[in-house]
Design brief:
CATH superfamily: Aldolase class I
Number of domains: 1
Distance between the termini: 24 Å
Number of strands: 11
Helix content: 25-40%
CATH architecture: Alpha-Beta Barrel
Shape: globular
CATH class: Alpha Beta
Order of helices and strands: EHEHEHHHHEHEHEEHEHEHHEEHHH
Number of helices: 15
Length: about 350
Amino acid sequence: MPHDLFGTLIIAAPMAGGTSTPAFVQAVHNAGGLGFLAAGYKSVPAMQAEIRSTRASGARFGMNVFVPDPAQLAPSPAVRAQLEDYRSRLRADAGRYGVELPALRLDDDDEWQGKIDALLEDPVELVSFAFGLPGPDVVRALHRAGSSVIATVTTPAEARQAAEQSVDALVVQHASGGGHSAAFLPVPPSGSHGPGSQQPGSQQPDTTAELLARVRSAVELPLVAAGGIMDPAGLEAVLAAGAQAAQLGTAFLRSDESGARQLHKDALASAHFIRTRLTRAFTGRQARALENEFVRDHPEAPEAYPAVHHLTAPLRAAAAAAGDAERLNLWAGTGWQQAQAGPVAAIVERLLG
């Protein structure tokens, strides 16, 4: 069903934490693209308010939801010990800003059921999921409500599991993308896999187009390519590999309408930062960020999301307030140096050549 589901070649990634605002999504729509709101880290009422605001603007949009991991919400004694150790290691950072580190929080499922209930009560056209699969019952319920369901995957194995749940399409995310990895199946053991490795495993193809081609061979679903797509050549490569659209985040971060902090936007344009790195330091889940002091100082962060996210939240807030880019989570894909300032419409126009 070419383009029937998406209606465009350009999708703006859902960027949680305040970047994907209703105004940003409206700007993407006005430019001929498709934007997604991000429910992650928001309360149910806040999510509903953004849906109402975006709907009132007349923009076509989707909503992205984080899938909680039961194993990480009930960590083993060994992981709890790692978290306490990491909390101790963060005390020097806390002292830098004079903030208190919170106690461990292990019960945050991001209001999963409340958000699903709200999306069933007041359906949106497109619902995408990251960090896992919603389950066949949720997929069926969303379908009955009239929503199309999109899963985010990082391997052919994850794609096959998603297809078994009868989702309508897949976002195929490569490790070159900025922000959190959506991976939810264990990566085969590899000497390169570690808290600071540049590749999440030896099975990862070198390019987004190569990963997309592998997934295309594994499932028969509409595919959206995500990861490192910054220019017309990158868009053309994934379309040639079988994508029906491309999902971009870093390319839009510096845009006028982006809700990202100015500190983050400025860091993307700064010659001070010379590489990106996969890290768990900020949230306990692998995410690609500009390599700053915090990333270098904490290569040992445990795999424990969102517990680590809550531990570092006051540090990140204090760093932002102090204008300290060295201790802020500066999410960025490998092509960050091509990110441009200016209106969303101009960025979309450049992408489409």
